[in-house]
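Follow-up to my post from last week.
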Amino acid sequence: MPDKKLKRVDLIFSEECSCKDVLADGLKSSKEEILQKILDSGLRGRGGAGFPTGLKWKFTAQEESDEKYVVCNADEGEPGTFKDREILSRVPLKVFGGMTMCAKVIGAKHGYLYLRGEYQFLRKDLQKALDKFHSYLKEMNHDFQIHILMGSGAYICGEESALFESMEGKRGEPRNKPPYPTVAGFRNKPTVINNVETLVYSFMIIRIGAKKFQELGTADSRGSKVFSVSGDTPIPGIYELELGMPLGDFVEEFGDGDTKAVQVGGAAGFCVPRKKFKDTIIGFEGVPTGGSMMIFNSSRSMYNVLKNYVEFFEEESCGQCTPCRVGCQQLKLGIEAVKKGEKSAAYLDTLQKLAETMKVTAKCGLGQSVANSFSSIVDNFREEMIY
Amino acid sequence: MPEIKELVKQLADKHGRTRESLLPILQGIVSEDRYISDFAMTEVARELDMSAALVYGTATFYSFLDTQPRGEYVIRLCRTITCDMQGKKQILKTLEDLLKIKVGETTKDNKFTLLETNCLGWCHKGPAMLINDEIYTEITPEKVNEIIGEYMKK
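User reply:
Got it. Predicted complex:
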């Protein structure tokens, strides 16, 4: 059983570190030293999928190419997530710092930050911070340049290959994989694409060392993570917590005393009902999350929650592959028909099968993850879907 | 129409004339005109020397790149469950009553367009809405009255 307790951490937002000094120190180290630190730390991607960051950097570093890129994925669109916006507005220099460290390891001269269109209002301040950061790099005689690109309101562009397509001026439709971005990413060149938070943690690991980071979290989920807490909670907001805590602890801290379910990981994540709070671990060994934690109390209809998610997927599906395009539509029509009594309750099982089919046949993470929320909500709140 | 021609040319001078310039150019048109007309799309295609179908395909993919005429102020109300739980429906009703239009419509004077959008990333401070690029959080029907009142005076 889990031995970790909920623990607040203050790593990302702590102001005690001067970005400039850390940057100078980092740039003095060799690329092997930096890479080793990231590998040793056990850091895994904070966008949701959790690929080991060090390996991503290593694979890209090993590729032979005249051009390589580092891309910061700031297309934060998962419902219930707002930590990247907070990070970008409070500690943008650390994000740029992480990109610079990565660029040094892989040998990139250009970095791109893809910011979602919904955050256009951040652009001005972000550019100011970037100008300041570029002046640091100039002082240190380091040849690396970061560019900010804007999205235009498409959730799917948070999927890495769709994001590259969008950066290239095309429709944001995911590519077939392989090849992975480490081999052929932006402009078909080897590319590291990391989430905003991952890059900040990389930078902090350069500062505090791998060992200190490793002391936090569990074997599968090293370190801490920024959580976006919303829904039925008296204290919604951003919290940095150690990974590996039981969901029960989380609910005790953030719930309103009447929590019936928590949606972990947004619309693409899993719904955990009350009876499983104690035994669910938040981390890669249990239920992983990109940070979204939506809390629902017993006054909420889980049918409405599911319908909201399915409508979301239906709208945001890029339409490229049939399982996702048609599947999302049919899931929505299906639950509506069951609710209205036009279809029998057993039809929910057919819909579950459809969701499972989407999981194995959809082209990208969007279509594959619809089943996560669909099945976990229908399984645990079946009666609410019917009556 | 000459204005659009000039705008497209200016944007192409600024962002370049490659495929990669396409999105910034389309975004530039929207921030100026609130939407991309068929004429604007063919202008972009001509300026960038690419097929108009490519421009159309790209423009229509993105929900913030409107290809329908929009008002001067585009209101996008967040429709995610967390904003819904914090009173989004009352906000929507207030907006509809105030502007006398439904979601997807534009006021007769072409001043406001009312739309819903997916998660704006303000779940802890819902309900949230964007008016063009400006964000408004923790809005109440009273606040909406005030905010829209201000825009009406503009």
